[in-house]
Amino acid sequence: MPVERIHPLHGPVLDAAVEHARATGLQPLWAVTPLAGVNDGEADAAALAELVHSFTERSGGIRPRLSVVPYNSIDALDDPYARTPAAAEAAFRNALRERSVFSHRRYSGGGDVGAACGQLAGAAAAAAGAPPPEGATQNWAGSWAAGLKDGPRPTLEAAYL
Question: Does domain 3-107 have CATH number 3.20.20.70?
Answer without folding.
Answer: yes
